[in-house]
Write a structure and sequence with these properties.
This protein is α/β, with parallel strands linked by helices. 37% of the residues lie in helices and 16% in strands. Bound molecules: adenosine monophosphate (AMP). Adenosine monophosphate is lined by residues 27, 30-31, 34, 53-59, 221-222, 316, 344-345.
Length: 422
């Protein structure tokens, strides 16, 4: 658990309806990010927060945003009063759900809409007809809506750029610039980011006005209790080993990470053939299929969700006991995000890594960066036969060939450079 924190939500001067919602959520006390960010946001200041998913960051901005909006009514027209920009559809949906829960006791209902691409734009245009108090949006779809005159951003008094690093890493820089250009210069801006690469610093410097810096230790809302394991196995035997682990540990809900969209389908299919209820989740599925996969997983109709890194960030599936890195993540930061899907909200979590002769060196780098040293395990009946190559592949590409991105990334990682994105 966290260090005892003297602050209560009441001391943060939240209104009674919001306090009621917080109590209903079972939050005893504010997390460090909430304690630090809620007062300046309530006071109308710009805030620049370093906050990871799991730190309670959604409530840190959603509660004060709701309180500020509830002080006034919305003017008529297609206006939006507060805009929350997020990198992915899944995060948009999740934040929408949180905002709804936190705002449900407010005496005047707050109109909140969630818009994202990959689904028909027409219902979103219709819904935006009367404007919205809060619009949670992914950048591309928001611009489509602006281009079609479905919404006006000229009255946005408050904007939250959530997971700004991720927004930029996903190539939304141009979209962000266009959206910001539509916003009034006089507004309140909150920027949340887990990491602060130079592009995020620039974004913050250019678009925040005299911000309050909120950098608390990246303590999760509830200290994660994640047992991490590194199991050696030859790649062709991973599916069988996974099945074996699921059966022996009686895991009922497992999130399995693989490297590619193709692998999600392929591994899910193999698991289905082995009698498990498995489904794939990746970015090329239709929005309907993605939502269905998540709903089925949350409702326990599916016990194994095989996903790409799309699912590593932002998803909060409470009671997710196990995450398996079937393929290792590319970066140490991705590792943290992936395993952060488990051990949430006080649950005990397990993160299992499958390590092969080829990926030993890469996993050592991930461990080094995350200050880990996991014992290597072998499971009876699945002992690997392949051996690690004598020279670690981390030291460069094939002679005469350009170094691959992966090789450059590994070298950067070995030099201790933060977050060289592969
Ligand atoms: P977030 O970082 O916003 O994704 O939140 C991570 C998890 O922490 C969510 O399941 C929240 O419901 C939970 N949470 C947020 N604030 C608190 C709090 N003050 N106490 C306990 N849990 C919280």
């Amino acid at each position: 658990m966290n260090e005892p924190n003297a602050l209560t939500f009441t001391a943060l001067k939240l209104s009674v309806p919001l306090l009621r919602a917080v109590v209903e959520q079972g939050y005893d006390q504010p997390t460090p990010i909430q304690a630090a960010a809620i007062p300046p946001i309530l006071a109308g200041r710009d805030v620049w927060a370093s906050a990871q998913t799991g730190s309670g960051k959604t409530a840190a901005f959603a509660l004060p945003v709701l309180q500020r909006l509830s002080a006034n009514r919305r003017a008529p027209g297609r206006i939006v009063r507060a805009l929350i920009l997020v990198p992915t559809r899944e995060l948009a949906v999740q934040i929408g759900e949180s905002v709804r829960r936190y705002g449900r006791f407010l005496p005047e209902a707050i109109k909140m809409l969630v818009v994202y691409g990959g689904v028909s734009i027409n219902p979103q245009m219709m819904a935006l007809g009367g404007g919205a108090d809060i619009l949670v949006a992914t950048p591309g779809r928001l611009l489509d809506l602006v281009d079609q005159n479905a919404v006006s951003l000229g009255s946005v008094g408050l904007v939250v750029l959530d997971e700004a690093d991720r927004l930029l890493a996903l190539g939304f820089a141009d979209e962000l610039a266009r959206i910001i250009a539509w916003l009034p210069a006089k507004r309140q801006t909150v920027l949340c980011s887990a990491t602060f690469p130079p592009e995020v610093e620039t974004l913050a410097k250019n678009h925040l006005h005299d911000p309050v810096r909120v950098a608390v230790a990246t303590e999760p809302a509830t200290a994660p209790d994640i047992g991490q394991r590194a199991i050696e196995v030859d790649p062709p035997r991973r599916t069988q080993l996974l099945r074996h682990l699921i059966q022996t540990h009686e895991w009922t809900r497992v999130l399995v990470f693989v490297a590619t969209k193709y692998a999600t389908e392929h591994v899910a299919e193999k698991l289905r053939r082995a009698g498990l209820q498995a489904t794939a989740l990746h970015g090329e599925l239709s929005q309907g299929a993605r939502t269905a996969a998540l709903v089925d997983f949350k409702a326990s109709r599916v016990s194994v969700l095989v996903a790409t890194d799309l699912a590593a960030r932002g998803l909060d599936i409470v009671e997710l006991p196990v995450v398996v890195n079937f393929d290792l993540p590319r970066s140490a930061a991705d590792y943290t995000h992936r395993i952060g899907r488990t051990g949430r909200a006080g649950e005990r979590g397990v993160a299992v890594n499958f390590i092969s002769a080829e990926t030993h060196a890469h996993f050592r780098l991930i461990e080094k960066r995350n200050r880990l040293a996991l014992p290597r395990e072998q499971i009876a009946g699945f002992e690997p036969e392949q051996v690690e190559p004598p020279v670690a592949p981390a030291t460069g590409g094939v002679k005469g060939r350009r170094k691959s991105k992966k090789d450059r990334y590994r070298e950067a990682l070995a030099r201790g450079e933060p977050d060289a994105t592969a």
